[in-house]
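To: structure subgroup
Subject: Chain for Friday's discussion

All,

I'm putting the inputs and outputs inline so they're searchable in the archive.
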Amino acid sequence: MLSFLNSVFLPALAAVALPILIHLLTRRRLVERKWPSIRFLEEIQKRRMRKFKLKQLLLLALRVLILLFVISAFARPTIRTERSALVGTHERTSVAILIDNSYSMGQESAGIDLFTQARQAAEDILELLSDGDEVAIVPFNSSPMPASREPFKALSAAREVIDTLKISSGTTDVWGAIAKGIDILSTSKLPNREIYLLTDDKDHGWQRAGDLVLPEGVKIYCLIFSPDDERNIGISDIQFPRTLLQKRVPFNLLPEIMSFAPGGVSDFVVDLYLDDVRVAQRSIDLAPGDLATLEFRSQVDEGGFHYGEFRTEGDALPADNSRWFSFKIPELIRVLIVGGTETRFIANALSPSGDDFFDVKRISYAQLGAELLSSWDVVILSDPPELAANLAASINGFISRGGGLALLLGGSPDPSRTWKSLFGEDTGMSVVASIGDSVGSARFKIGNADFDHPIFTPFADEGLPDVDFRRVAAIIDAELISLYLTNNVPLIAEREVGEGKLAVCAFSASLQFGELPTSGFFVPLMHRLAQYLASDVSEFDRGYTVGDDVVRIIETVGAGALTLERPDGSRTFIAPRFSGGRTILPVGRVSTPGIYSVLNNEELVDVFAVNVDVR
């Protein structure tokens, strides 16, 4: 039985008539006139004309055959024969049909999306098979997902599976799909083994290292589907400048726009939505292959969870026209200040009226052991002494689980012993001694700062004030330093500890050791230091990529069922785990782009974004 894999090309066979029509229309019709002088040449001329006409007919036949063979090659003719009962049946075949269901297959050709065309081609392939053959249906995007554990023996079951396949939001991995097809066929004992690859053949689908070896006896056939319109502009990423998010304070966002279009585009519009409201719009011109960045500036008026979306439209592939993000601005940052009488300067700087953005509590080191640190966002240790092992363990656990710790060591009796009691000997960065004393004239002044650091960004234009210090702690081997003294000694250094942040400050909040507490610089410095250390609850969340296995860690919530709400509005329950004052949410593999919400008895406790992989 003769059939065709790409029957869409069969109407083109009408083109074989073109050489015949051209031949008929361009034939020269000669007027015959008798001329006595050349009658002896007529016989010679007749013989030459017979040869010429034969040559023309042969050329005509050759042109017709070339068109016939080319069109037939595109139509992919296939012959399946069945021998007579006396000889036996045809040799059985094991087939793996690999169907690309990545989001790029959503582009259209002749008004039909490529994925629908691929499914129809897969059903056409099934028509070529007979009873006794076996077939594996393998839809694939970034990973192959066989529709069944074993190849189908019943072709009707394979057809039903093909009818249920849907396009995904994942990217493509052609290499991995072929490797899976080879793996499936390697277990087959049938004499014929064939792989059919149905894809739009994006370049990144082949981005793997090494060689892909096709075993002997395995044949592979590729059916490539191409869209009519290849104009595609995608939002590939969002840059979030280092900043501290606050209510009613503008922030910047920089989406990266990538052109996959074969030609240039002009005045392409990008919109910014915050909490489903369009708040800004920009336009951009792009050349083929361009990657450009736009700058948006916006703000929100309320604290709590927020989400946003950059959106484009008007190209041929809607799947990568949106990129989502989320963020949280805390209503209140809880700060525990531990120390002596000097802590009043810190408390007044953070919360002068007692009902501001910071919830502040002052305690002494004698009271620290009774305090539940996990109930605070930031802990500030002012001029700490050498600490007992149990207190050091509690503080380290607090930082490791995501808390923020500020050490003000300028007035510590022995900063090196304090540091060793907290973090031991071998910690990289360390504090070795005090420099200066509490008497005499000022010895040190503020020097340079990293104005790209979130704490010091507001001071970039006007610079830092002239503040004197009489005594500071000597910080050595610090890799991240945001503020220096004029002699290049670190004044503020930091490092990450587990999931939290540690800021080591060489100064003291006591007037005995410097003028900082009474300077105009102290209030904004302490504000931004505390916000920065609590930035795990005040920062942008890039989110995840389709196909990621998501685990969220949030603050411990009250009793009640935890529910995950997906972008399409569907909901499912989550069984949380609890560890160290935190709630661990095993969300699992995410397959739909958009905004996900976690609810505790309908109260919003977490928000995160999922995006497609644009490349």
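Points worth raising on Friday:
The first strand starts at residue 2 and ends at 4.
Residues 106 and 133 are 31 Å apart (CA to CA).

D.
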